[in-house]
């Protein structure tokens, strides 16, 4: 078996870089490995305007390590008052790469999201017309729907009909967690893709309850049963161009995790590629890692692939219990593949 793998440099098609002090603490871990990242707009004050996105992009670039080529790709946070003209202007000026749909109250800082898709029909039509991708947090929020069923119900209640109404709209079904989502994406022949996180490939819902309530494994959409994890692993490692890398790294301060009402989010940026590599190695699919991490995303977004490479080597790496005061995914574990340090 080979003990080195060199691939086109990867991108992260879904990450939370936060702002201010937290941004300073976390951005280097994404920039170390990924050349570009689709940056989520769910700041405490959501990024709803072109100007806000421009300013946020500047703050990210100022906080990024010097000498590292890292391009943040910005997203617009859709609300029921989003103006199609503003959105189009931001897209045509190259500020917005895509727009993010948060169903209201589905997750962190989503209160300003959308309660009724009909309210944004003209926005979606405009995006469809100009070729601007829609990134969807695909969960219903109805209190009577079991939290583990929210993604599957979203597909049936909203996603199927949205795809019929807007067949030319490019849709990324973000951080999918179920075999229903794998099947839905896998049965579509165009304009639909999905990102998959390292944690949804690595853990099932037992992890949240191992010896006690473990908030470090709590994220949204919540991790599901083992059968879903296995379906995600098959999809991610298949080489199918509809599935690509999106870490959903979502750091929270310790106080937000060590509490009786812990925040949703897993900070996986420090060892994300190593985590994916472990999964691909276990599935005997290392030859598909490059497609998942570095080729399928750019192809879907219509962007060029990166023109340099990174190398993974089969050298064990110990994940520290804390990284910059935050608990990283895989804390205290040993991963079998490591990213060769960049010079
Ligand atoms: O676990 C999550 N954390 N899921 C999300 O959808 C949002 C994210 C966050 O921003 O904390
Ligand atoms: Zn996210």
CATH topology: TIM Barrel
The pLDDT mean sits at: 97
Corresponding CATH architecture: Alpha-Beta Barrel
Bound molecules: (4S)-2,6-dioxohexahydropyrimidine-4-carboxylic acid, zinc ion
User: Strand tally, please?
Assistant: 13
The CATH class: Alpha Beta
Query: Could you estimate the helical fraction of the residues in percent?
Result: 25-40%
> Alpha-carbon distance between the termini?
27 Å
Estimate the global geometry from the Cα principal axes: globular
What percent of residues are in strands? 5-15%
Radius of gyration, in angstroms, nearest whole number: 19 Å
Q: What is the number of domains?
A: 1
Q: What's the tally of helices? A: 11
CATH H-level homologous superfamily name: Metal-dependent hydrolases
Strand order of the largest sheet: 2-3-4-5-6-7-8-9
Write the element-wise H/E pattern from the N-terminal end onward: EEHEHEHEHEHEHEHHEHHHEEEE
pLDDT < 50 stretches: none
Supply the helix-strand structural class: alpha/beta
Largest sheet: 8 strands, parallel
């Amino acid at each position: 078996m080979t003990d080195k793998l060199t691939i086109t440099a990867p991108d992260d098609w879904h990450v939370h870089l936060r702002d201010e002090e937290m941004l300073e603490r976390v951005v280097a871990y994404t920039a170390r490995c990924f050349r570009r990242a689709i940056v989520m707009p769910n700041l405490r004050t959501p990024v709803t305007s072109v100007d806000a996105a421009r300013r946020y992009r500047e703050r990210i670039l100022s906080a990024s390590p010097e000498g590292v080529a890292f391009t943040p790709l910005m997203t617009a946070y859709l609300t029921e008052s989003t103006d199609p003209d503003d959105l189009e202007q931001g897209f045509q000026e190259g500020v917005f790469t895509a727009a993010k749909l948060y169903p209201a109250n589905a997750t962190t800082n989503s209160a300003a999201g959308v309660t009724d898709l009909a309210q944004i029909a003209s926005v979606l039509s405009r995006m469809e017309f100009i070729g601007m991708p829609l990134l969807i947090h695909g969960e219903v929020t109805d209190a009577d729907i079991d939290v583990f069923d929210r993604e599957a119900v979203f597909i049936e209640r909203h996603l199927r009909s949205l795809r019929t109404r807007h067949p030319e709209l490019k849709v990324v079904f973000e951080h999918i967690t179920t075999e229903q989502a794998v099947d839905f994406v896998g049965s579509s022949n165009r304009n639909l893709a999905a990102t998959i996180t390292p944690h949804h490939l690595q853990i099932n819902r037992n992890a949240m309850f191992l010896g006690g309530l473990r908030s470090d494994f709590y994220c949204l959409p919540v991790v599901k049963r083992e059968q879903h994890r296995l379906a995600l692993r098959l999809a991610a490692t298949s080489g199918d161009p509809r599935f690509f890398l999106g870490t959903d790294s979502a750091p929270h301060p310790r106080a937000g995790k060590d509490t009786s009402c812990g925040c949703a989010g897993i900070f996986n940026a420090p060892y994300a590629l190593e985590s994916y590599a472990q999964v691909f190695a276990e599935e005997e699919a290392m030859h598909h890692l490059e497609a998942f991490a570095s080729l399928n995303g750019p192809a879907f977004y219509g962007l060029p692939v990166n023109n340099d490479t990174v190398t993974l080597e089969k050298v064990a790496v110990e994940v520290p219990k804390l990284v910059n005061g935050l608990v990283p995914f895989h804390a205290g574990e040993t991963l079998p593949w490591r990213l060769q340090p960049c010079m």
